Amino acid sequence: MAIGVPQKNNTLLDSGVHLDYRDKAPEKEIFNGSIVPFDELHSNPSHKRLYFGDNLDVLRVLVTDPNICGKVTLIYIDPPFATQSQFVSRKQSLAYEDTLTGAPFVEFLRKRIVLLHKLLSNKGSIYLHLDEKMIFEMKIIMDEVFGPENYKNMIVRKKCNPKNYTRKTYGNIADFVLFYTKTDKYIWNKQTVPLSEERKKEYQYVEEGTGRKYMKVPVHAPGTRKGETGKPWRGKMPPPGKHWQYTPKKLDEMDARGEIFWSKNGNPRRKVYLDEHPGVSVQDIWLEFRDAHNQNIKITGYPTEKNPGLIRRIIAASSNPGDLVLDCFAGSGTTLAVADEMQRNWIGADNSIEAIKTILKRFDSGLQAMGDFVNKDAHRQDNYSQQTLFDSLGDATSRAHSTPKSQHKAIRDFSLFASNDSPSELYETVNTWFSHP
Ligand SMILES: C[S@@+](CC[C@H](N)C(=O)[O-])C[C@H]1O[C@@H](n2cnc3c(N)ncnc32)[C@H](O)[C@@H]1O
Q1: Domains, the chain, ranges and CATH?
Q2: Ligand 1 neighbours (beta carbon < 6 A)
């Protein structure tokens, strides 16, 4: 693999590449749009808020709020993908329409992204989830708004299992998450995953007495040294052209702790233990967070609901407990519920009644297994125990999805806002929800 050497002073403040299309509003105009008032239907002193309404109106309100503007640490958005489809819930009620395409789609999303940029704190990050339909146009827009120097990754996610396509193309199992930061001083908590079974096989030796697995590695490294590491240890010089990796004193200490393996010929090797491996850094291809792919995985049933494991990783990497997480295309509330579980504050918005109903139900009772063959009696037990094929195989996606019912903690400590032209169905739903304990 060839790796180029980055040139110094290569700061890309403006790449010179811009997306030009009809009716592209000047940024100033986006900020100057009229402010739609929101009523507080339920008030709570926590820093958690759910909005029902068009997110353009919500974001404009938030930009004027000094307690929020510039204080959002993490934004994850999963907007419509320009699929030209209607999405219905499992009960066949319309959840939302995804009809915009081309320039109108780009402008719809750009307006929100401009406001989101303003809301983000200087240590903040934004993750934009899309698929191949609009990702290239939106990458250019993200570069325009955030600056190409703040682009961090385009994460490729495996969204589903391979399908048997009849079309003459490769199967489509990927979607994408663009990761940008506001500045270079962003929160970053490195994420790791355990070693693969294949890599674990490299730890083929078992230590007598402790049973710990280890592999053997040399205690010398290339290059000669004049100092301590170039001197003999236990009467042995390092091999020609090499030096000891540690000083003779340190090697003595390691040997005293049993960390050196001596071959029959008296050659020392260092033991590297499997149980001390720090894990492998997460890369930009994520295979383990498919969306519900098996009837028994617990979900809300809202269309296009994302895998909570995906959001858990993003929140862990780019925020800390107490930080403010925002998702203005909240859908079933995956980001909000996971943020809450991870002790973050959150702001969510959606303009679909079906989404708000789903979020409230999820906050109350968590996720449910919705397969046709689900044993309804199992739901009555506090500790949901139905075995799935994937559970029994230790499938990571099933684990990422499922929170045993007994672990679900109801979320009730948030404020709820709605624009004052909201339908009466919303008020009825909200009143019923907050009136029962
Ligand atoms: C792809 S879904 C989000 C799914 C979500 N990530 C989840 O895990 O459930 C997109 C959501 O954006 C909402 N939406 C679309 N346009 C909106 C707008 N202008 N204002 C607020 N919400 C909007 C839709 O109602 C839909 O719930």
Answers
A1: 38-193+281-435 (3.40.50.150), 197-276 (no CATH)
A2: 54-55, 78-80, 96, 302, 304-306, 329, 331-332, 334, 349-352, 355
